[in-house]
Amino acid sequence: MKSSSAEKFDNSRANEYAQQSRIALAGYDACHDLAACMLAASLGQSRPAKILVVGAGGTAQEIIAMAALEPDWSFTAVDPSEPMLDAAVQQLQANDLLHRTEVHLGEINDLPADQTFDAATLIGVLHHLNGDEPKCEILQSIQARLKPGAPLILAGNHYAYASQPLLLQAWGQRWRQQGASADEVQAKLGKILQGADPPHSEIAVQTLLHEAGFGEATRFFSSLFWGTWLTCKAV
After folding, report:
1. In angstroms, rounded to a whole number, what is the distance separating the alpha carbons of residues 195 and 148?
2. What 3-state class would DSSP assign to 51?
3. Given a cut of 50, is residue 2 above it in pLDDT?
4. Model confidence over 113-161: pLDDT tens digits?
5. DSSP string spanning 56-108?
6. CA atoms within 13 A on the CB side of 26
7. Domains of the chain by range and CATH?
8. CB contact set of 122 (below 8 Å; sequence gap of 6+)
9. From residue 144, how far is each of 28, 105, 112, 214, 234 by CA, in Å?
10. Checking CA distances to 171, which of 4, 98, 163, 197 falls within 20 to 30 Å?
11. pLDDT: is 150 or 195 the higher one?
């Protein structure tokens, strides 16, 4: 059964994702570039590695950035939304990366239980899952497929949106900066308030990671509500 979070990412959203995501997240490409750099620093450069990319649909930007930096890495891309995964496959084809990527439509738990990875990414996913239980479950599913001590890049929104009115207004101004009308800005603000459930603080992010079997996380990128961390599976 398709999850409710996957149902949000239909054909219309997949078609606009590349443009919309770069407006909603100022520094979208920098975030993905730095994620690749942090993984390379953690794993050691120029070494073969198998990377699990959870929620890979849309731009496949994390794979593109990692592949450009490390030619000996291979990828397993997982996403429950067929339109989003199709969009990612188009980007992988355009960048000649399909031969380095296994693509799976579905959930992490659909992968073979004995398949293990040297590292993983979960970018832009956690805040689309309602409640702490599914957030912890997806982190636990990733943790179970990582080798001991393997790194995870976690990125997404944190803070309850309504608790940060200045950030929320600045986020609306970001859309205005990109040409949105006043009515469009208000529609975007209404949508973000109703459409996601991010962890309510950085402490909440750390708690979820600890409960799922990860160690302390290092934050290395921020943009308004967005945070990006590197953590490792506890040994």
Report:
1. 35
2. strand
3. no
4. 889 999 999 999 999 999 999 999 999 999 999 999 999 999 999 999 9
5. -TTT-HHHHHHHHH-TTEEEEEEES-HHHHHHHHHHHHHTT-GGGEEEEES-G
6. 14
7. 4-159+198-232 (3.40.50.150), 161-197 (no CATH)
8. 54, 55, 138, 139, 142, 152, 153, 154, 155, 156
9. 28, 19, 11, 11, 11
10. 4
11. 150
Q: List the structure tokens of 103.
A: 């693509």
Tokens of 207: 């708690």
Helix pair 202-211, 132-144: axis angle to 10 deg: 50
pTM to 2 decimals? 0.93
Q: Are 199 and 225 in contact (CB under 8 A)?
A: no
Q: What percent of the chain has pLDDT over 90?
A: 84
- As beta bridge partners, residue 28 has none
Q: Which two tokens stand for residue 88?
A: 């990612």
Q: Is the distance from CB of 209 to CB of 231 less than 8 angstroms?
A: yes
